[in-house]
Amino acid sequence: MAKGRERIERLDRGIRARTRDMYALMSYAEIIYLIGPRIIPPILLLVFPLIISDPYWLLVMSYAAFYGVASISWDILGGFTGLVSFGHALFIGFGGYSAAILNAWYGVPIYLSIPLGALIGAGLGTLVFAPCLRTKGAYFSLASLVAPLVMIGVIYASAEILGGEEGIYGMANPFNDVQWYYIFTITLLVSFLVIRKVVYGKFGLILQAIRDNEPAVKASGINVVKYKLITLFISGVFASFVGALQAHRLAFVGPTFFNLLHSVSIIAMSTLGGIATIVGPALGAYILVILTEYLRILQDVRMLLYAIILIILLIFRPEGLFRYLERIYNTFERKVVEE
Amino acid sequence: MILKIDNLHKRFGGIKAIDDVSFTVNEGEIIAVVGPNGAGKTTLLNLISGFIKPDKGKILFKGRDITGMSPSKIAELGIARTFQIPRPLHKLPTIFNIVIPLLSPRVKRLTGGVGDELVRAIDILEEVGFERDSDYIRKPAGLLPHGYLKRIELARALALRPEILLLDELLSGLSRPEVTSILPLLTRLKDRGFTIIMVEHRVRDVSAIADRMIVLNEGVKIMEGTPEEVMTNEKVIEIYVGRRGELA
Ligand SMILES: Nc1ncnc2c1ncn2[C@@H]1O[C@H](COP(=O)(O)OP(=O)(O)OP(=O)(O)O)[C@@H](O)[C@H]1O
Ligand SMILES: [Mg+2]
Predict the structure, then answer these.
(1) Which residues 189-228 of B have a C-beta within 8 angstroms of A?
(2) Complex ipTM more than 0.90, yes or no
(3) pTM for the complete prediction?
(4) Which of A54, A192, B160, B232 has its CA 20 to 30 A from that of B102?
């Protein structure tokens, strides 16, 4: 064999050149290159409790998964449909309260109170957000911001019915820390797969079209309001689901579930990870939750911290971390011998 | 008679954008609506397509009152429109601009949901003048030049398989060769049974293909007639000469 000149090429180039849609893989390097980023993070998440059994970190990581689900569900609305909600906590709260009332008051068992709580919470949230759909752009964001705050007011005002400031106690909590860790983490992985399926199919294409140009979609004979309502509901099911999980985990639900801090955190996480990427918001959730744990002093100024992160990102990396990492990853090189 | 416009009124603040306009459209006709800037032409199409609601008056499509219905409902019934200022889905590839109407309930109903949307979208794009294997088909629509954005507008409307096409200044901003390639396409569409209402600024271009013309000025219907009648009408000449002499 004639000795060829050595040349550097991007690792993904050979794969792209050889095949259009089907992967004809040539080397282990390529196989690892392709599936590595897809399977290593979930595997790490699944073995985490085997490596670190400190209940404190299990709790932190469960919390990150909780925000991960909330953020990727937000991304369907804010990222893909252009409905930038500043009130996503509404779904968390409705999900939590629905599950709590079903379980603590009506004795509905936990394996039903959580899924039913998710559905009822999503339904209630969609009903409340529906009138906000009349407004567009920043006005929708403002209207959605107010909705959970109004709910907090409603709960305070109706102490006898909804438990007021004290909230509702006594929901079933039959699981230990490791079990809760797996419940939250598997919920995140499943949510990720389902939401990806939704947004990268025909339905998601219509959502992106609505984000791009609403009148064009109306002129295409598609009922935009109907799609927005369905999207609110789908997004709400996931956020309400983790709200319901959290209510059982804490055996408590209170007005804090509707807290503005949740809504703002979700937006900060999504922006950090990268809006309209689905995986990005989950990444952002892990980063911000772990970061605020490390920087305990910052706990009380979290809002300010998030605001600063948002501003810095919007100026320097508006695409978010995920797209940035993806680009770096795609430039991995290898030596090829030209013959 | 496929469409009947009955005493339509629309005000914006103090401006009477459409002032008591009535006319009828027969199946398979090309009707040209002409008039100077601000005459109310776009407002008329917005009213018919449901994007704005009239203050007074009625719009009947095949005898059915569609006044005040939503834009998507009117499109669903079979009236498709284009926008004067193109409204592409700018971040999505051109082909998806055409896939969207193909996913509408109307097209699903008419085709029984069979066939690949991407294949059909390429056929439609080709029909309006895209090269089959052009880069433009896969590029984000926002990157395309103006002439192609106009073609996307037409393709999106055609994809709905409508009965009536409302075209808002499809020819404006197009080069001479582009205009001479689109005019025969419109005649072909008419021959295939589409009813076309086209709003145009330049009377000359449309007079060649229109069956009838309606002249609007300051919201009022000045006259209606064959292209010859309109082009030789004293009042019409006066409006255009008075403005800019665009008739010539
Ligand atoms: N949404 C609106 N709000 C307020 N005024 C409007 C609105 N739309 C149109 N108008 C006014 O109504 C009148 C008719 O406008 P229209 O756009 O229908 O005219 P046109 O015939 O399409 O003009 P052009 O040839 O410039 O497209 C104009 O005076 C315009 O300023
Ligand atoms: Mg106009």
Answers:
(1) none
(2) yes
(3) 0.89
(4) A192
